Amino acid sequence: xxxxxxxxxxxxxxxxxxxxxxxxxxxRNGAVYGAKIRAPHAVVxxxxxxxxxxxxxxxxxxxxxxTHSRNLxxxxxxxxxMTSILTWLEEKPEQxxxxxxxxxxxxxxFGNYNKVNEQINLYLLSRIIYGLAKLAVKRGYVAAPKxxxxxxxxxxxxxxxxxxxxxxxxxxxxxxxxxxxxLYHDSNIWHNxxxxxxxxx
Length: 201
Known about the structure:
single chain; mainly alpha; 2 domains; extended
């Protein structure tokens, strides 16, 4: 007689209800991945840069981790549900299904402004721009470079961001401003050996 675990394993392996089970697994993976990504980052950033009591810091870490985990799980759930429905309706997957489902999910999940969503959206934007440049070469819209363009890419990124920091600082994200102030402006200030080598100010 099969055990409950064996029956569940047989059901999962049978392929019945695969789209529904894929949505549930996607929800699970979104929650786990969001927590894995955000928790270490939140711990480091909170203890390095935030002031306040230990309970305030722990609450901040939990809130950031919860927000990232919940939002990623929600987005994966919406995206996989909508692409599954569209594929079922049209009897095959189409390229626009991905864009449409992600557009709706992005609007409702990552369109709510908070620091976590801002960071995720900015992270994706940089990858999209880089990916679109590669796609333009792949599709033949732009000729393939004859030499390595990564140094030029790096030069433009750093040239623009430092110009913006020095002359249009208010247009940059606060955490970037804070990091750059520490690196480029606070390094101009000291009074003795102690705040030259050990402390910042």
